[in-house]
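Raw record, unedited: Protein-tyrosine-phosphatase
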Amino acid sequence: MTSTWHRDTLSIDQHLALTTAANNLAREFDGTFGAETIERFLHASYDEFAGRAVVLNYLPLLAERFARQRLRALAKVEGRSSDSRPVVLFLCTHNAGRSQMALGFFTALTGDRAIGWSGGSTPGSAVNPAAIAAMAEVGIDISGEFPKPWTDEVVQAADAVITMGCGDACPVFPGRRYEEWAIADPDALTVDDVRPIRDEIERRVRALVAELVPATPA
């Protein structure tokens, strides 16, 4: 197995955290994927964030979360999952503003009736503070989210792919539903300027949910 993860550069705490992450994923995907596949995805996810992480202590947690998402996507693509819930993927350039706000609304509106993911063509280092503040005003906390790329299995597992400004970099796979939302980039804007963007995203997400996600039985 080839990886740029050099274990001798990790602290003892990081070693322990990654071992715990690998054990968590092994339990969750027991019977679905073997240890080699799980470790490969975990190591690749760690490498993805290592080059641009702001707080190194969070790296193992981010790696585990991203590896979990990728493994769930792979399970669906390969027919190893019985989860029939619709999956929507929100994409923008940095995965730090528009796609994170869209995911926040989607998750709040659908609960466990659907699965929402997000990604960016050139992921930033942190979610836009103005986007976090604007979403907090409507009772949605996206402060725990993190910018991440998209991967082939994540795109292929999605039933609908919503793009917001990633242009030619946006991935295209046959059989997916694609929508391009023309929404301004909130990067470097104030909270006052982000509010109209937030409200437009909410309007679009509500319409998407009404169309794609079955309502909860009365």
